[in-house]
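Archive entry. Fields below.
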Amino acid sequence: MSLAPVLARIDADLPAATARLMELLRIPSISTDPAWRADCARAADWLVADLQSIGFEAAARPTPGHPMVVAHGGEGAPHLLFYGHYDVQPVDPRELWHRDPFDPALEETPKGTVIRGRGASDDKGQLMTFIEAFRAWKAVHGRLPCRITVLLEGEEESGSPSLVPFLEANAAELKAGLAMICDTGLFDHDTPAITTMLRGLLGEEVTITGPDKDLHSGMYGGAAMNPIRVLARIIAGLHDEAGRVTVPGFYDGVEELSPELRAQWEALGFDGAAFLGEVGLSVPAGERGRSVLEMIWSRPTCEVNGILGGYAAEGFKTVLPAKATAKISFRLVGRQDPLKIRESFRAMVRAQVPADCSVAFRDHGASPASVMATDDPAFDRARRALSEEWPRPAAFIGSGGSIPIAGYFKTILGMDSMLIGFAKDDDLIHSPNEKYDLRSFHKGIRSWARVLAALV
Amino acid sequence: MSLAPVLARIDADLPAATARLMELLRIPSISTDPAWRADCARAADWLVADLQSIGFEAAARPTPGHPMVVAHGGEGAPHLLFYGHYDVQPVDPRELWHRDPFDPALEETPKGTVIRGRGASDDKGQLMTFIEAFRAWKAVHGRLPCRITVLLEGEEESGSPSLVPFLEANAAELKAGLAMICDTGLFDHDTPAITTMLRGLLGEEVTITGPDKDLHSGMYGGAAMNPIRVLARIIAGLHDEAGRVTVPGFYDGVEELSPELRAQWEALGFDGAAFLGEVGLSVPAGERGRSVLEMIWSRPTCEVNGILGGYAAEGFKTVLPAKATAKISFRLVGRQDPLKIRESFRAMVRAQVPADCSVAFRDHGASPASVMATDDPAFDRARRALSEEWPRPAAFIGSGGSIPIAGYFKTILGMDSMLIGFAKDDDLIHSPNEKYDLRSFHKGIRSWARVLAALV
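PREDICTED_STRUCTURE:
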């Protein structure tokens, strides 16, 4: 089936596609606050109707939380599942928005035309890129390019509580050959990207207890063990002088980049100094001898996300506290086993707790890294397709953050994922004045048409 | 003037004296938090009115912080200045109190009747012991036993910022022959004590700043320096393996006990294991080779009184924080110089701050240790008077806590101090469920009547 008329149709239909996106953006589908529950349902229904209008069999399927939109359409190989989410982040602080977050508009800016509004980039604008690509294909060829399942979630911004049970209960229906996830970004303005490495996350909370109550540091100071001192020693010992994490066995399953991927990353021209400079830093804090890109994409980390002990409010209190707590997370890569690392970390901490203190742990989740099956030829085909649309060739990149859906597709549905998206670093997702470049939207739709053509 | 009718009057008036103390305890005069400023003033006014009711010329004297209560009464030698403080510690963690901290009550416990409430022991209950002794003396003899000045501070629990300027500005008015400070404890349930060695206190707040805003630990984790990690290393390095403080020059001016005092302390039969056992501990945490009594009375320490950084509330947030803060205090002994130690500590911290981070310090007070002039015959007279009231003879003891006022009386007013108090180790001062034994209150009032009779 020919691609050129589909691209032409997309170009001609852009004003109408933009108007449709605006309609969806006007629905305040904030998932985390029950006050907007009816609006989440309304957004789901809007998407169902839109998918039905282009020939999908679609329904808003109830969950204990917000509905899942599931749609089926088309025939023939490959069978692709497209994922996006229709819920959005809250808008506060509201006063920092320069227009109503749910009254979207096109705005001219020095960097081009943008679609301004909550959800424009994360993720309504992105999910509409593939729906508009389907629409154009259907209009030109009378049918969808292949068998397509669509799954649009309404709880991504509120911890996805219904996702795992829904995937488990509907595994047979949802399993496809490959999942296409549209919730990531371009590498930069001109360089499209397929995210092929996502770090995993292990969250631990460590509480050291010393005396059985808070003590007066004058009365007991010197004689009684201070749990903050114990906790500080443990934290101080988590990295060695070279910036490596000291948990025994931590680097098991961590692999070096392939020479090809290393060359690709080097060619990206990522400016580590500028990246750090934007947040007031200049010295990379990770493992000595690694590039900043490696530190955030392909190397595992250990961070203390929070610490609290004793009197931390205004003023001073000479307390020798009973307890001190730290929240510690590990970003995981490659084949690192989160559960083995949890056990090793806990054993290492226990070994450092002095006779008089005790330690308690709380589990804040454990998910392994996702490394995509880039040897699937679909990855190279998609990369070439994207490279034809954008000024610079597409890159396989990593992502420091976690996108749990890819892990769930793998573990629950046995399905690999390809992550393609068109968001930009300056889209202000989760912040006031969120926007999506009109160019991201337009070229995003065209990109999906090209990828579909390359995969069928 | 006869003592017996004063003691009888004290016994008869105990219910009324207890009711007066309850009234004072109901005023939440927390000095460290500006939210309670009006209550501090209210506590000062209450004391002024009470002192006026027993014939003192009294006033709440303004300072840049909370007022000083100053009262003058009586005639004839000796001229004694009585000191106490009407401010109290914060109450958090509030949920560990089994009653409203500012709704005091008498409670029957297996160890006797206690007055439960914030400030019952530290220091409202204690300062009322001498005021009640004055009241009884005045009721029986129609006048006070000698010339008495009263100074009640409202900032003792928040570093006494106004104290030194106030003493300096009012030196001529406040200088007496001897200061009587009531803010210490019994040696044990049956053994009264005159505290002759007080540790000094240096309070420092250290804030490490890394990135210029809180970061997402997925996006920046590994590349951006985490200030909690920096702070933990600094804290972990403050003690060596033998439990000694590592700040350069820290032990300058620290002296060994005289053989006499060492023998006296050994004769007290202090049970270090029981002392630690009462708070759920068993291993002395101080310098290796020192007794527990030395650790808390005659050796200097370094404690972290509070630490806070990142997200420390319920749940988990993958933040890489911009800042981390610790409140650190040093207990000082002998001739240790607080200002030299502050400079040495700050230099040591600065040397450990990596290139990308910055450090800011806040000064939370600095006072040297106090060693009392026990060759003044008043000390032996007071010791004999106390020994008549209590089951066992009074002892000269040390104190781990800091009572900077004794040092200021010496350096600013040229006046020696005698520290007598009736608090007990299990009073839970600075902790939830603070109490004061009704027996401490009753025998404390009687003790002051006896000491006054012995000194006039």
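CURATOR_NOTE: Chain B has two domains: 4-198+370-455, 200-236+302-367.
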